[in-house]
Write a structure and sequence with these properties.
alpha+beta; 7 helices; about 210 residues; four-stranded antiparallel beta sheet; globular; 11 strands; single chain; Aminopeptidase
């Protein structure tokens, strides 16, 4: 088991070390905690304060993205190639990021979690070519977005919009994005306190379970 700290750090670290397994991921996400490896440190477990979420009622789709969405010739799938999406998230270069936190141990644990039905991917296809995608965890009635990639303009944003449409079809009204990024802030995401996030998590967990697929 990870060693839990007496108090969360300023960065939101709540525990250190321990194994990363599908079962540990199930337990951690159900309690608002997620792993985030940092090179040179034991495995770190986070419950940040504030926490970033996107309420679908506040979703903002700009004119350019809206046109791209309406005119898109891409096709979208769910869970067609989870591991491939996760590998692409680890390897496709990003302008604002060097390296990746998706270690081989993370890849195995989340792939195992996918096999248990609690981790899911969205794929974006141009003909038979995978051009964008994202993956995340769906535990206790909450989807937590983990990572995304794209090889085409706005591909990952279109994947997010497809995910939101799917979640809405299940009656879900918000998305956990863990930490606020400019990408999600432009879509209407905001930060809330850890206390408010945990209240949302408890409320979602108390409702009848709705399968993701």
């Amino acid at each position: 088991m990870p060693k839990f700290l007496p108090e969360p750090t300023e960065e939101g670290i709540v525990a250190v070390g321990g194994p990363i397994t599908a079962e540990m991921l199930q337990l951690s996400y159900a309690n608002g905690i997620f792993p985030w490896p940092h090179e040179g440190y034991p495995l770190l477990w986070f419950a940040p304060d504030p926490r970033a979420i996107l309420d679908f009622a506040d979703l903002h789709v700009g004119d350019r993205l809206g046109r791209r969405r309406r005119n898109s010739k891409y096709t979208f799938t769910i869970n067609k190639c989870f591991r491939t999406v996760m590998e692409a998230c680890a390897t496709v270069p990003r302008a604002d990021q060097d390296g990746t936190w998706i270690t081989p141990q993370m890849l195995k644990a989340y792939t195992d979690l996918h096999a248990l039905g609690d981790a899911h991917s969205i794929e974006v296809w141009e003909d038979e070519t995978l051009v964008a995608g994202l993956y995340g965890v769906y535990v206790a009635g909450v989807f937590s977005g983990e990572s995304m990639f794209t090889r085409v303009t706005d591909g990952s944003k279109l994947a997010v919009l497809f995910l939101i449409d799917h979640l809405r079809s299940l009656g879900i009204t918000w998305l956990d994005i863990e930490q606020l990024t400019p990408h999600f802030e432009a879509l209407g995401a905001v930060e809330i306190s850890r206390v408010d996030f945990m209240a949302r998590l408890r409320d979602a967990a108390a409702k009848p379970h709705i399968p993701f697929v």
